[in-house]
Amino acid sequence: MLFSGLFDLPWWGYVAAALVLTHVTIAAVTIYLHRCQAHRALDLHPAVSHLFRLWLWLTTGMVTREWAAVHRKHHAKCETPEDPHSPQIYGINRVLWLGVLLYVKECHNPETLERYGRGTPDDWIERTVYAKFAVYGVFVTLAADLVLFGAVPGALIWLTQMAWIPFWAAGVINGVGHYFGYRNWPTPDASTNIVPWGILVGGEELHNNHHAYPTSAKLSSKWYELDLGWLYIRILEALGLATVKHVAPIPRFTAPRPAVDPDTLDAVIRHRYDVLARYARMLRALERGRLARVLPKSRTLQTMYSMRHELAAVWGRSKAPREQLVRQLQDWCSRAEASGIRPLVEFSLRLRSYA
């Protein structure tokens, strides 16, 4: 009797149902809340957008404005004491196991909502249902699960749905994604790609890629990486239900310009993480594991390391007048090519080739 519901399934059928339902929630979080609302990387058809809003109300109780605001603040204050959920500040165990509490605390901060929550849905149904009665949707889902699957399976499926996002998104992505993994891009934060196949959390596992290019609708960047959320976006786009606005730039090269000009500056800043990644590979080729012993004695390595920091400072001072930044980049290239250090000379020529 406890197992009687509209669907009488074998044990593995209930497991499959739980996985499918939680995966729909993951898709709603990564496509709608994260890429569409928080970062404006794509636009969704109003029907799809509202379907995601309804599903998230039913399965998570999260409010779009609150989620987007907390996430935007995370990017703005990443790895600082103002970051809502950095494991570098709070420790990996607290973020991994109690990350949802950090999220709830921050989403009740009126200053965060006012500063970072703008541009999210503010229509009648958002104000009078989804935001006002945020926690009620999950009880509607509980009733539906009990009717569809029976008391015990329905309750277990519901508990799985309730725990999935708090653990995988608030815990694993926000915690492990800033603590363990590999890095494609030398971003100034501690973000990592947890694994190269973004399946369980819809592509959010590729967190370092996201922090390098936060407005990109596509989170994979290497040929061997899989972003399942991007596959869903492409399907929606093919059906006319989504419009991709931004993806991570792919470097293009031309013949080296005789001198740095504003177009060169724009291209270098746009591809700055590719520039730094290539510079790092060049340094690794010279180091061969002997950096600590060789650096104090090697003027070549000292020069290359100091010029690496000078190059990164060009886009770090991006609020300076463009003419000043062009002169600084031109000066960097001139000194690199006059250094007589062959890798630096070749790198400067490549830098002037970014299109």
Question: Notable features of this structure?
Answer:
17 helices, mainly alpha, two-stranded parallel ribbon, single chain, 2 domains, 355 residues, 4 strands, two-stranded antiparallel sheet
How would you describe this protein?
This protein is mostly helical and 355 residues long. The protein has two domains: 11-244, no CATH class; 262-351. It is 61% helix and 3% strand. The protein is built from 17 helices and four strands. The strands form two sheets. A two-stranded antiparallel ribbon has the order 1-4. The longest helix has 28 residues, at 11-38. The chain is elongated and about 80 Å long. The protein starts with 10 loop residues before the first helix and ends with a helix. The model has no long low-confidence stretch (mean pLDDT 89).
